[in-house]
Amino acid sequence: MNFSKGTISVTEMQITGDVDREVIAEALKENAFTSEGRENEELNIGFADFFDFTSSDFSNFELFNIDSLIVFGVRIDRIKVPSAVSTIRVNEACADWLAKYPHLKFIPKVEREQIRDRIRSQLLQKYDPVPSMVQVIINMDNGNVWIASRSRNVIDSVVGLFNQAVPQNRIIAKAPLKRYSESFSVEIAAAAKKLNEAATDSVLEWVEANSYVWNDFFAWMLFRTFNTDSQYSTATGQITAFLDDKFVLSGSNSEGKQRIVVTGSQVNANELRSALSQGLALESVKLCMKVDSGDSEISVMLDDQWLPLQSAKIPHIKPESDPDDDPIAERVASLLVRTDDIAKVRGLIDELVYKFLLVRSGTTSWYLFTQEYNEWLKGE
Length: 380
Hints:
Elements: E1 7-15, H1 21-30, E2 43-48, E3 65-66, E4 69-78, H2 83-100, H3 109-124, E5 130-139, E6 144-147, H4 152-165, E7 171-172, H5 176-181, H6 186-195, H7 203-209, H8 211-227, E8 231-234, E9 237-253, E10 256-263, H9 270-277, E11 281-291, E12 297-303, E13 309-313, H10 327-360, H11 363-377
């Protein structure tokens, strides 16, 4: 799970409080990954080198303090005992115990739990841990945190480790509409606040109560994909943005709860229009973007919860290398180029969202759009 791959998935979070590089550096050292004395633990987790998960040496501050970034890895070693093996061994041990006490028909609960724990401890010594590594980037300029994974279990492990190691600075999730409501643009912030239907500041409530906004965003993009030239003016220039190839729809209609996936190039969107007309909503879409100044196409899967950079295909142009170059300086340069590429993609998505929010928050503009949209769904 790293940022150098051509296709990446990123969880975007925020770090709270005033961040002290020295404090984080010390926390990384104190909580560095080690297997010494922990070979038979079911879960072993700790900080590791961003570029090499076999190393957990944080003595050189410059290796993980790069420009405006703090970068590090989190290594997670798990021993996975097959459940079938565990069940068989426990049943055998229970049978042996009952054989010693023929007057008993059942094993007492406490004794059974002790047998289960003993067998599990024995099995953990027979299986090797399976290591995994996830890269983390903290941007000191804006407080953004990027974690190179979309796995809920992985994210919980990474955030739990960091928040325990650095209690004065916590990594937290932020709902996308909440983030837009704090935009530097007064107009965008006002639009996001107007659309918010969350009653509290709970992150989950901001996500769940406002998923309708992103359903509407996807519908807006879909309509423009099939009825306009898909051109948008942005701060970085003219871009082409459209939905294509994969659509996930869900909702309830006369047939009950449904969830369907539509794949492949859509010529006239008949299947999509039929599903949307029946009350389903776009839950997840594949957004494709192309900046006019280049030939490369960018694609990313977006969902109606977090608008994450999921399965994002972002062209990676590595800096030119020379045999005489310093390998450490070379990988740092490559990382900085990569993070800049990812930030630009998020920026392009944000600009599309800005345009949508202004339309969606306007009573007249949204009414006019829905009129056109509904007529299109009917095929008129």
